[in-house]
Design brief:
Keywords: Cell membrane, Ion transport, Membrane, Transmembrane, Transmembrane helix, Transport
GO molecular function: monoatomic cation transmembrane transporter activity
Strand order of the largest sheet: 1-2
GO biological process, one term: metal ion transport
Radius of gyration: 23 Å
Helix content: 55-70%
Strand content: under 5%
Largest sheet: 2 strands, antiparallel
Pfam families: TrkH
Number of helices: 20
Subcellular location: Cell membrane
Shape: globular
């Protein structure tokens, strides 16, 4: 693998610094090299599958490896305008791979065109996951795809079966590329007539923000982000970004299940109207998981929109004079707070209640098997419904005539508890390392990093290297999943040994 990286860098330097080669050839060569590296990584991952029998550990190391590789690429002289430190390069790379959006450097001014391309590639690889990407290339080498590999990919894609897991990975990649292509076109035409965009290439601007939005990364090629004067009042552009964020943050399994239901419904009425045929949809086409995620997402979006509109009406929203403009910006803020680091409001003028509400939304985050972070909407919904169920005196949780397994309930409360512990410890450490920063800004930063939300009150670049390392670890934990980290690092009992006995039950007094 190291020889592959050195070969890549050798060829890259030859082509990039050769003045006799045109810029177009350099770009095509770079793209070809990237595709070649991805194919080689596919073979490398197969070797890893054989050697290591821990899906969670492979999942963890894939993100860590990608973050370090990205930091090396971003430290290349051709990637930056001026020399940057390893910590800043690692922070930027991790933020891109973990699709967070927290930055310590100005993406627009501190990185060259090539550096921005590297960041974009890291965002795409991090959003989809290197396991999904390698599975996509494995699709063209079916003979070498083993059952063990299928188990690893099914764990990553959060599916209960290994049937057609390879085709599912391909569907994920193709769906992502299709949505990003449509998003690029929509963004391009929404800003085409406006010559105020701070970018030399509007097409690249459109591609970058489409990928960044769908992958929920929050990176922007504008120095002030989407708060820039050129797009701050472009409400069509904001709606496009918001819907890309929602699609990327709702989860691939949920989207495929929901689109299947839509397709079958259209097919049913088409056959009934035009061919006078009856078509019976399969029972329970829409899964309980899909219903919970979509309803929770819808509720959070609506409630968040109304809250931002009311709390910021006389503050940060005051610069938007139109009625529809205020509502669109409120909707955008509600969507981006849970998933990405885009912002179209001056966050330094936020009221304290808005800041605390934003922290709450960031903590909940996106949905399972999506490009976003946080404790996830289903975890929050399940824990909340379990509390309501216990308050009513029930000893089990039932939703729509289905009993939720105790394992799912225990897992949801474990994730919530672990997230609170990790966040609290991180806040204490950063307060110790950077005592000059106020506790609210530090807390906001920590929640943002752990939830891979990417929003900031403006202290990221002022933090010490120690605090930056804490945020790097938080971003990795948030993207990988703290429970996956524990599964990957902690030793398990011997196979099946804990299933053959049960101790007497003991009751603990809880008030």
């Amino acid at each position: 693998m190291l020889s592959l990286i050195f070969s890549f860098l050798k060829i890259f330097f030859f082509y990039y610094y050769n003045e006799n080669i045109t810029s177009d050839i350099k770009i095509y060569t770079l793209i070809s090299l990237i595709v070649y590296v991805l194919i080689r990584v596919t073979y490398f991952m197969r070797i890893v599958y054989v050697k290591i029998h821990n899906p969670a550990f492979i999942f963890i190391t894939s993100f860590v490896f990608l973050s370090f590789l990205g930091s090396i690429l971003l430290m290349l002289p051709a990637s930056t305008v001026k020399k940057i430190s390893f910590i800043d390069a690692l922070f930027t790379s991790t933020s891109a791979v973990c699709v967070t959006g927290l930055v310590v450097l100005d993406t627009a001014k501190d990185f060259t065109y090539l550096g921005k391309i590297f960041i974009l590639i890291l965002i795409e690889l991090g959003g989809l996951g290197i396991l999904t990407i390698t599975s996509f290339f494995s699709y063209f080498f079916r003979d070498g795809f083993s059952f063990k590999e299928a188990i690893f990919i099914s764990n990553f894609l959060n599916t209960k079966t290994t049937n057609n897991v390879l085709s599912l990975a391909v569907k994920v990649v193709m769906f992502t590329l299709t949505v990003e292509f449509i998003g690029t076109l929509l963004i391009y035409f929404s800003i085409k007539e406006k010559n105020t965009i701070e970018s030399d290439n509007i097409l690249f601007f459109s591609i970058f923000h489409s990928i960044s939005a769908f992958c929920n990364s929050g990176f922007s090629t504008l120095s002030q982000g989407l708060y820039s004067q050129s797009v701050r009042f472009n409400y069509i552009f904001q709606l496009i970004i918001a819907f890309l964020l929602i699609l990327g943050g709702i989860g691939f399994n949920i989207l495929f299940n929901f689109f299947t239901y839509i397709w079958l419904t259209i097919k049913k009425y088409f056959l009934k109207i035009f061919k006078d045929e009856d078509f019976r949809c399969p029972v329970h086409v829409v899964t309980l998981n899909t219903k919970i995620v979509i309803l929770t997402t819808f509720f959070l979006l609506v409630f968040g929109t109304v809250f931002y509109y009311i709390s910021e009406y006389h503050c940060s929203l005051s610069e938007h004079s139109s009625f529809h403009g205020k509502w669109i910006v409120s909707f955008f803020s509600s969507a981006t707070s849970r998933t990405a680091g885009f912002h179209v409001l001056n966050m330094n003028t936020f009221t304290p209640i808005t800041i605390f509400f934003t922290i709450f939304l960031m903590w909940i985050g996106a949905s399972p098997a999506s490009t976003g972070g946080g404790i996830k909407t289903s975890t929050f919904a399940l824990a909340l419904m379990n509390v309501i169920s216990l308050s009513r005196g029930k000893n089990r949780l039932e939703i729509q005539r289905k009993e939720i397994s105790s394992e799912s309930i225990r897992l949801s409360f474990s994730i919530i508890m672990l997230s609170i512990i990790v966040i609290y410890i991180s806040i204490l450490i950063i307060i110790f390392l950077d005592p000059k920063e106020d506790i609210l800004s530090i807390s906001f930063e920590v929640f943002s990093a752990f939830s891979t939300a990417g929003l900031s009150l403006g202290i990221t670049s002022n933090l010490s290297n120690g605090s930056k390392l804490i945020l790097i670890l938080l971003m990795l934990l948030g993207r990988i999943g703290i429970f996956n980290v524990m599964i990957g690092l902690l030793k398990k009992n011997k196979i099946g040994s804990h299933h053959y006995y049960r101790y007497p039950k003991g009751n603990i007094l809880i008030n």
